[in-house]
Amino acid sequence: MYDFAYQKPSSLADAVKALSADPDAKALAGGMTLIPVLKQRLNKPSLLVDLAKLGLVGITVSGNTVTIAGMTTHGAVAADAGLKSKIPSLSEMASFIGDEAVRHRGTIGGSLANNDPAADYPAAVLALDATIKTDRRSIKGDDFFQGMFTTTLEQGELITAVEFPAPEKGAYEKFRNPASRYAIVGVYVAKTAGGVRVAVTGAGQGGVFRHTAMEQALSANFSPDAIANITTPVDGLNSDIHASAEYRAHLVGVMAKRAVARAY
Amino acid sequence: MPFEGIGAAVRRKEDARFLSGRGNYTDDINRPGQLHAFVRRSDRPHARIGRIDTEQAAKAPGVVAVFTGADMAADNVGGLPCGWQIHNKDGSPMKEPPHPVIAVDKVRHVGDPVAVVVAETKQAAKDAAELIEIDYQELPAVASVRDAIAPGASLVHDDAPGNICYDWHIGDKALVDAAFAKAAKVVKLELTNNRLIPNAMEPRAAVGDFDPHGGDFTLYTTSQNPHVIRLLMGAFVLHIPENKLRVVAPDVGGGFGSKIYHYAEEAIVTWAAGKVRRPVKWTAERNESFMSDAHGRDHDTMAEMALDADGNFLALRVSTLANMGGYLSTFAPCIPTYLYATLLAGVYKTPVIYCEVKAVFTNTVPVDAYRGAGRPEATFLLERLVDACARDTGMDRVAIRRKNFIPADAFPYQTPVALQYDSGDYQATLDACLKAADYAGFEARRAAAAAKGKLRGIGISTYLEACGIAPSAVVGSLGARAGLYEVANIKVHPTGSVSVYTGTHSHGQGHETTLAQLVTDQLGVPFDQVEVVHGDTGKIPFGMGTYGSRSLAVGGTAMVKAMDKIIAKGKKIAAHLMEASVEDIEFKDGQFSVAGTDKSKTLTDISLAAYVPHNYPIEELEPGLDETAFYDPKNFTFPGGCHVAEVEIDKDTGVAEVVNFVAVDDVGRVINPMIVEGQVQGGVAQGIGQALLENAVYDEGGQLLSGSFMDYSMPRANDLPMIKVGTETTLCTHNPLGVKGCGEVGAIGSPPAVINAVIDALKDYGVRHIDMPASPQKLWSIIRSGTPRMAAE
Ligand SMILES: Cc1cc2nc3c(=O)[nH]c(=O)nc-3n(C[C@H](O)[C@H](O)[C@H](O)COP(=O)(O)OP(=O)(O)OC[C@H]3O[C@@H](n4cnc5c(N)ncnc54)[C@H](O)[C@@H]3O)c2cc1C
Q: Residue A241 and residue B784: Cβ atoms within 8 Å?
């Protein structure tokens, strides 16, 4: 990696200030994406601002809402008893991310800020209609993702927490890339008070998206049969050495049906 | 004394060191004043090199030197040599274009070294390497063998027309053609053997050291064969005599063949250390491993079997295109010829066989031996073809194999493709494996899986391989430029402990344990008083290293020969001490005794006398108890056996999972059953990896698309079932231990078992062949396009 300066501030305000002052500064969370990118010299930040001492860790349950602080690791999310009782499908999803070591370091804030088109959390945020809290505002999941590796976050803006309303039931089904174990296709289905939401990750060229045709069919009849005949248009889907757009379109259907069947 | 000799499942001595992080790997070695090298590699698959501007890089902070291919050429550095020469059908030698250590006129694959920066830190070297400006004139690239041999294809080497390295053949074509002409049935199969990237856990590394006073060079390197590296690099590349060049291969974290070869970076750090007069270290980053470690396999083959009306094999005809990559790696030419075509008889008594192989240059990383080397390619072809024969003739897959097996009483058996098998019992390994796999109960399991919506299939592979490499005169006549004997030096120390200096090298195989067990068995010395030393030309007399499952069959035999000399000398000393005649001395379990008396001396009594020769036949006998033996094997060894795989396929997604795997192998005498089990399991894991997951993919333009673990799928523990391993033994008849070898059988026997199982699972979909890897997308397409129908042509 190239040389960079390093800071580990102990207040959110200091972190935001340092990041806002320098367009080439970057926040460092678990480092599971950023460090490999730096090692490959694909990025040359002037300054890394480590978020580890901001106290942004923990999961709180209040009524029907679960709030996960921005620096909470996937491992902690997967293990939290309070979360498991409210949104078990979300803890299970976190347990599918990467491997033990990655889950021990990687954070929810880092994953969402990065918005990798094959990452798992974006599907959870969209399907569960979550709200992203930053140092300066609240952003609805539907407004947050702006295409692959792009979000509405401004320079220096930090994710401090994510608020998830508990659905009636839900499930996440992931078809792993055999090499990277990221999602070739991941489908999160949630039956919420406001209707059924279906979010698809891994498949779309523009990153995570909601599958409105399936949402409508499932809102009318929450059963795998309801979406058996719904096809996913191949246009706009990814194609690579592991899976063609056609295969991905097919997998969206399979994963969605399985998620509906297993929703809990 | 606990049982620690031949046959004991002794725990591996080396594991305590490895598991507690106390291994000593090349990258752990740091020499005083050491500098770091970074190799600037080509990102172009094929280009002419114009100007290379190193001025900015040379001025960068911390930089000590920047070198290009021109600098090495000016210093009379030779190219990387090829260790095997194949001859064409017409008797002319293969094309052997130069392989400069650092590219000079052209780059021929992504990863080809173009310049080297030597600096105070790796970081500084890497920073400076970015400042090197290279003018490339890009040329059209060829990545696949088919594209490379197409008329008008861009030439990788101007002096290799049609990109052909050689056009070789073996067998009697006329006889084979005649047999085909009168065959009742001909079964054809076109297949590829997918290209693999070895991915040893430890990336390659090298440290070059130079002593300016004595002019001595030392190279520490991740090698399977330090003496071979000393020979090749010293004699052909850097022109350093043996007495001035020491090569050390310390702990090495996996090789699988990829660390046999003499690589550019070894020459670079050694040469650069001499130039800058300081030690120079290079350690590969993982992405460099992907684009610079020799790859494996990559064949395109057409195979045909001629059968009579009863299903007897009459003749086999094979035509293969083998990808060599951009240059010839050290042993590349022999892999698709003498380690491949000679294996095409397999376990079958096919009377005549003809095989022609065209080796082809492409703009890809050089291809060379990878676990099994040639034999997995032959086995995949044959075991797929035999299944296709069963299918096309309506015969049972087991029955057609049994019918064509070389019978157990036919040994020694001369095949039509040069090899003479010494021993084996293929019915026995097949029987044992079918039983262990509950083959008879399979249809019930298939039905149970179907009830869950899964497609279940079972596949068999009955295979044979040739290892224990190799009789020097034989391989010499076939084009090898080296001998393939092995060397052991055994020192019995004054107090009776033993050091073994072996020319083989352990990089995961457990030699420190297995070879110590041999000493315990033969000399009666307790296991923990035996030390096995390997990997240092400064300590070991000579050796050809470890590959081709040769360490025990060849290196172990050299040890036995050296121990025979120890015992013979010990008898003379014992005779003197006990005032008996040498002919009356017997040696057993560490005791020299006078026959018919109760007089005896321990090995320690003898060794003490040998080193403190006060009462000693000093007029006739030298002091000391230290013997060396060179052993050249009489033949290859021929392990073989049967692998049975069972898979389940998810109809919706196409994912195939291996749910059962049984291997029953005949590896000859088993020294340590636990190590054999581990070796077979590791090999099977790689075989399942090849069958279902691994694939090195180049795009048409020569860019490596699977250039990292994000896209290259290594098998993980949870991709594998519990792998059951059994052995059925026939002894090798031409080495004293009766051993055959177990390092490669797993990777050789397993891929066709898995693919045969996948095809069996899809039998209602009319599929006749599937190339590896049987990826989910591939299987899904088959399932989707075939409405289930009964298998019919
Ligand atoms: C081997 C491996 C396998 C993986 N598998 C998966 C998988 O299967 N599924 C999956 O979803 N992910 C996977 N990941 C990614 C991983 O889960 C991490 O979540 C992800 O790398 C980012 O989180 P992080 O905390 O490591 O962020 P970092 O790498 O530290 O940062 C990532 C980016 O986010 C920014 N950032 C970090 N935190 C914040 C914040 N609070 N506010 C604003 N910006 C921020 C950083 O500046 C940086 O640009 C894998 C990673 C690895 C290494």
A: no
Does residue B16 fall inside a structural domain? no
Region(s) of chain A under CATH 3.30.43.10: 5-50
pLDDT at A193: 87
Residue B58 and residue B80 in one domain: yes
Full residue range of the structural domain in which residue B552 is found: 485-631
- Kindly list the residues from chain A whose CB atom is less than 8 angstroms away from the CB atom of residue B784: 250
Report the C-alpha gap between B392 and B244 in whole angstroms: 63
Residues B592 and B722 reside in one and the same domain: no
Considering only alpha carbons, which residue of chain A is nearest residue B651?
Answer: A254
**Chain A residues touching chain B at CB-CB below 8 Å:** 2-3, 40-41, 175, 177-180, 182, 240-244, 247, 250-251, 254
Q: How far apart are CA B645 and CA B372, in angstroms?
A: 19
In-domain check, residue B102: yes
Q: Is B443 exposed, middle or buried (0-12, 13-18, 19+ CB in 10 A)?
A: exposed
**CATH code, domain carrying B695:** 3.30.365.10
Measured in Å, residue A112 CA sits from the centre of ligand 1 at 8
The CATH number for B68's domain is 3.90.1170.50
Closest ligand 1 atom, residue A109 Cα: 41
Residue B793 has pLDDT above 70, yes or no: no
Contact A175 B705 (CB under 8 A): no
pLDDT in tens, B6-30: 999 999 999 999 999 999 999 999 9
ipTM of the complex: 0.95
* Overall number of domains in chain B: 3
Closest-CA residue, ligand 1 atom 38, reads A110
Assess if CATH 3.40.50.1000 describes domain A5-50: no
- pLDDT of B124-165, one tens digit each? 999 999 999 999 999 999 999 999 999 999 999 999 999 999
Question: H helices then E strands: how many in chain A?
Answer: 11, 12
Pair B621, B643 in one domain: no
Residue in B710, B712, B777 nearest the CB of A243 = B777
pLDDT tens, chain A, 264 aa long:
899 999 999 999 999 999 999 999 999 999 999 999 999 999 999 999 999 999 999 999 999 999 999 999 999 999 999 999 999 999 999 999 999 999 999 999 999 999 999 999 999 999 999 999 999 999 999 999 999 999 999 999 999 999 999 999 999 999 999 999 999 999 999 999 889 999 999 999 999 999 999 999 999 999 999 999 999 999 999 999 999 999 999 999 999 999 999 999
**A59-263 has which CATH code?**
3.30.465.10
Closest-CA residue of chain A to B287: A40
Q: Where are the beta strands (DSSP E) in B670-760?
A: 723-727
Q: Are residues B334 and B277 in the same domain?
A: no
- Residues of B whose CB is below 8 A from A244: 777
Chain A residues touching B130 at Cβ < 8 A:
41
Distance of CA B216 to the CA centre of its chain: 31
Helix (H) or strand (E) holding B444: helix B442-451
Q: How far is the CA of B285 from the centre of ligand 1 (A)?
A: 22
- Cβ pair A242:B712 closer than 8 A: no
Taking a C-beta distance cutoff of 8 angstroms, is the pair B531, B497 a contact?
A: yes
Residue A178 to residue A126: CA distance in whole angstroms: 25
Closest-CA residue in chain A for B692?
A178
- B720 CA distance to ligand 1 centroid (A)? 28
**pTM given for the model:** 0.97
Query: Mutate which of A1, A90, A96, A111 to test ligand 1's pocket (most atoms within 8 Å of Cβ)?
Result: A111
Cα gap B39→B203, rounded to integer Å: 15
Task: Characterize the bridge pairing of strands A169-176 and A195-201.
Answer: unpaired
- Using a CB-CB cut-off of 8 Å, the residues of chain A touching B127 are 2
Q: Average pLDDT for residues B482-504, to the nearest whole number? A: 97
Q: Which of B631, B663, B681 is the last residue of a domain?
A: B631
CA distance B257 to B261: 8
Whether B309 has its CB under 8 Å from any CB of chain A: the answer is no
In this prediction, residue B790 carries a pLDDT of 46
pLDDT of residue A49: 98
The two tokens of residue A261 are 């069947």
Q: Of the candidates B127, B653, B719, which has its C-beta nearest A254's C-beta?
A: B653
